[in-house]
Amino acid sequence: MAEEIIGNVYDIQKFSVHDGPGIRTTVFLKGCPLRCLWCHSPESQRFESDLAFMEMKCIGLEVCGLCVKACGQGAISAGEKKKSLTEDKEITVPVVDRARCVTCLKCAEACPSGALYDPKKPMTVEEVFTAAAKDKKYYDKSGGGVTVSGGEPMSQFPFTLALAKRCREAGITVALDTTGFAPTERFLEILPYVDLFLYDLKHMDSKSHRNLTGVPNDLILENARVLTKAGGRFQVRFPMIPKLNATPENIRATAEFCVEIQDGIDVVQLLPYHKFGATKYERLGIPYRLTNVEPPSDEFMQETLQLFQGMGLKAMIH
Predict the structure, then answer these.
(1) How many domains does the chain have?
(2) Does 96 share its domain with 169?
């Protein structure tokens, strides 16, 4: 049965107000074919399990140490002493040698506080739907619904399609947060069950797009054109990263493409770059590559907004 299809989820966020209209439940699926330099959710990238360490949850090796004992690779050892966030004392926190770690997750299984954990949570369609359907009264009152996000949800297409159908059957609207990088036929298959596409436009030059994300943009742009002609509705998202894609040439090219597909666009969201995801890279032991990039100024964002609006687009800074 479709309800028994398993998806790899890394988070379910209730009462979300940033992933589509109204009050929503956002289901984040793990795994993405892109590797955007500015990605604020590195735990969403790999399809496989990850070992993450949330230091603030650690109760200290002095009273625990089960992670050290559980690791058969010698990848976990005593690190620095740090002030406990829950008690008035110092504790010794573990450090993970990522070169030795084989992601067997035995340390996470042994960790009593959940400081060491795997973000990947296998769930059935029915399990996710049941969690989301509990808030249907809030969706109905606010014009909200369920948003399926990622990672890239189209990379788990059978699960995403089945969940969208299940929500539609229950009268719950669906938004699909996507990079657009998936076969066109899959987008056309899921279109009848998606009320709104939250659609990223990261760079209009295909070579630059590949350099910044790991994939070209030809399929992404073509899917946007095809979905527009087929009646799809869009909330276009333009992440603006200084030095990388927030250049005068790319900003104008992005606005011009939005004019091309304007019949399908409800709103264009201009997303200023931020560094809020940097701590997630620390948890996974991954270097954060944009340490020298700063968020764009308010003045710059306002000028960009005026450009988009001046071309007849409904746009907003988000």
Answers:
(1) 2
(2) no
Same-domain check for residues 148 and 260? yes
Best CA proximity match to 92, nearest among 103, 84, 102: 84
Same domain membership, residue 291 and residue 178? yes
Distance CA 263, CA 240 (A): 23
pLDDT digits (tens, 9 = 90+) for 230-266: 999 999 999 999 999 999 999 999 999 999 999 999 9
Query: Is the same domain home to 272 and 199?
Result: yes
The residue among 203, 159, 145, 154 whose CA lies nearest residue 177 is 154
Query: How confident is the model over 129-174, as pLDDT tens digits?
Result: 999 999 999 999 999 999 999 999 999 999 999 999 999 999 999 9
Rounded Cα distance between 136 and 141, Å, is 9
The whole domain housing 84 covers: 52-117
Final residue in a domain of this structure, among 117, 152, 171? 117
- Residue 181 sits in the same domain as residue 81: no
Specify which residues 197 forms β-bridges with.
176, 234
The CATH number linked to 71 is 3.30.70.20
